[in-house]
C-alpha cells in the first residue's frame, strides 16, 4: 500500500538539512558533526524503518521512462510541484503570474551552497524516479507513479551540480557532500512510506552511515 508522505513525516529527518554536518569517517571532527546531527534526527525510527524494508535485487527490467512518471502537476493553487518546492523551500521568495518563481534565497541541503536565482536550482526527487522504478514498484499504476513524482515531501531544491552528480544513484554509489545522516534518514523515510525495496549494497551503505550518526 502506498502512503503519500507529508511534510510532517519528514520533519525530524530534515531538521538539519542545511546545517552542513559531515560524515566522512576519516576524522573525529566529522564524527562529532554527525553526532550533533544525530541529536536531531530519530535514529531509532530510521533504523526500524530500514529493517522493515524488503531486501530485493533491483528490478532492472522495469525500465524507467520519463513519460510514465508524469510530474510537475499543479499541487498548490496555480503552483506546479516544481514551483511549489522553490516557493516553500526558499526565503523571501517572490513569484510572478501563474506562480512563476522570480527571486529568493535558497540553501542547497546537499552542499550548503546558497543561491539567489531559481535557475541555479534543480528539483531532486529524494529517491530518483529511475531508482524508484527499480525498487519494487512494477505493479504501480500510472496514478501511483504520478502521485510519487509530485509529492512535495519527496522533492528537494538543490544545486544543479549536486543533482546531476547524484543522477539516479542510491546511497551505495552516491552521498551528498554534507550531512549524510539526514540524507539517509530521509531516503529511508521515503522508501518506507512508499513500500519500496532496497538492494543489499544499498542497505549496507545506509547501515554504515547510521552506525556513525
Strand residues, percent: 5-15%
Helix content: 25-40%
- Helix/strand class: alpha+beta
Widest sheet: strand ordering: 3-4-5
Question: SSE string, helix = H, strand = E?
Answer: HHEEHEEEEHHEHHH
> What do the pLDDT scores average to?
86
In one word, what is the shape?
Answer: globular
Number of strands: 7
Give an overview in words.
- The protein is globular.
- The protein has 213 residues and is α+β, with helices and mostly antiparallel strands.
- The chain has 8 helices and 7 strands.
- About 16% of the residues have low confidence.
- The two termini are 30 Å apart.
- Strands 3-4-5 form a 3-stranded antiparallel β-sheet, covered by helices on one side. A two-stranded antiparallel sheet has the order 1-2. The protein has a two-stranded antiparallel ribbon with strand order 6-7.
- A hairpin with a 2-residue loop joins strand 1 and strand 2.
- Helix 2 packs across helix 7.
Provide key terms for this protein:
single chain, 213 residues, three-stranded antiparallel sheet, 8 helices, 7 strands, 36% helix, 14% strand
Amino acid at each position: 500500500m502506498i502512503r503519500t508522505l507529508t511534510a510532517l513525516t519528514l520533519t525530524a529527518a530534515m531538521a538539519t538539512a542545511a546545517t552542513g554536518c559531515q560524515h566522512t569517517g576519516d576524522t573525529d571532527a566529522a564524527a562529532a558533526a554527525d553526532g550533533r546531527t544525530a541529536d536531531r534526527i530519530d535514529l531509532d525510527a530510521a533504523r526500524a524503518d530500514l529493517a522493515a524494508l524488503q531486501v530485493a535485487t533491483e528490478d532492472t527490467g522495469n525500465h524507467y521512462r520519463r513519460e510514465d512518471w508524469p510530474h510537475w502537476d499543479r499541487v498548490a493553487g496555480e503552483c506546479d510541484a516544481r514551483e511549489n518546492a522553490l516557493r516553500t523551500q526558499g526565503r523571501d521568495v517572490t513569484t510572478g503570474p501563474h506562480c512563476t518563481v522570480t527571486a529568493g534565497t535558497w540553501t542547497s541541503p546537499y552542499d550548503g551552497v546558497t543561491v539567489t536565482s531559481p535557475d541555479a536550482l534543480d528539483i531532486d526527487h529524494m529517491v530518483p524516479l529511475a531508482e524508484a522504478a527499480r525498487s519494487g514498484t512494477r505493479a504501480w499504476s500510472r496514478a501511483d507513479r504520478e502521485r510519487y513524482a509530485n509529492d512535495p515531501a519527496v522533492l528537494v531544491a538543490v544545486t544543479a551540480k549536486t543533482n546531476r552528480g547524484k543522477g539516479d544513484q542510491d546511497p551505495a554509489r552516491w552521498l551528498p557532500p554534507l550531512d549524510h545522516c539526514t540524507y539517509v534518514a530521509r531516503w529511508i523515510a521515503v522508501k518506507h512510506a512508499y513500500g519500496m525495496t532496497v538492494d543489499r549494497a544499498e542497505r549496507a551503505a545506509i547501515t554504515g552511515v547510521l552506525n556513525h550518526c
